[in-house]
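Review form for a predicted model. The reviewer records the input and the model, then writes brief findings.
Reviewer: anonymous (R2)
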Amino acid sequence: MPDWEADEPVTTVAEPPAIAPPPGSPPPAPGPASTNTHFTETWVPLERWCKSNGLSAPVRLTLSRAAAYEIKTVKSSFILHPGSQVGYCDGLEVRLGFAPQMINNQAFVHHLDLEKTVEPLLASPPLALLRTNPIIVIDPGHGGENAGTKSVLGERYEKEFTLDWALRLERLLATNGWQVFLTRSNDSNPSIPTRVAFAQEHCADLFLSLHFNSAAPAEGQAGLETYCLTPAGLPSTLTRGYGDDPGVVFPNNAFDAQNLQFALQVHRALLQVNSARDRGIRHARFPGVLRGQQRPAILIEGGYLSNPVEARRIAEPAYRQKLAEAVAQALEGFKD
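Model under review:
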């Protein structure tokens, strides 16, 4: 539950920039063939994009109207569904900015989704930290008077669970050669600017903010969500009522590709703990704790405290230990 919003709501822009037509707009007719991997048209034929990137033609997985298209590399695959913003990278749910379109029996994908989502996730090698003892700042969400969401099971709050998760992760990473710093190590509530500045002061290689979710009073929602800052030009998966200006560029947008690679690795590991309840890797523009970061940065919502089953698990120290171990294992993949 967020204390991770921007300090002030941003102004909603009535029209998105020219590179991002309103959702639902039909794609233009195909432009001339190009041998470059950079495309100037807004909507790009998926087959031509694959060819320009040295990949095999996308495979159509069904023959029905609800066709899906799979792009394969030696190590990864990405499945796109025309008409849906939900894609899958190696089976993990990833949200696109715009739903791919069908025109003249060809799949078209928005060029920013190809550049900012598909290409980074299919890239090899993924994100690597080029130092022996990398530095990570872990941000336990909430604290102090800002308790976060309340567990549906009783008088326990998000701030307690995020701090415990962070302390467990700190111990694991320190034994593996990481330099670990926490934005808080007690029941305090540093401001969002303070949390961002803390990472800058410690020259962090990575920033990781830990949270738990809520859909109260509804109890049915469950699962894992991992957030990156929305790339410029794309709409966010989630706005929580804040403006979502796609024309704004924040400092962390310099790390769009690395953010997504970071998120995928951690998200995959955590799904092994939470019984694969996958709510996807998502983009949001309003979280101030990510916007100002000058390093790869993600925010994890590790389960729903409004769901009785997940709240019961989260309340167990052994389960929080498993969450910490999963993140630690994922992070080892980033070390040189």
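Findings: The helical segments are 46-52, 111-122, 158-175, 192-201, 256-271, 288-291, 308-314, 317-332.
Further findings: The first helix runs from residue 46 to 52.
Recommendation: see findings above.
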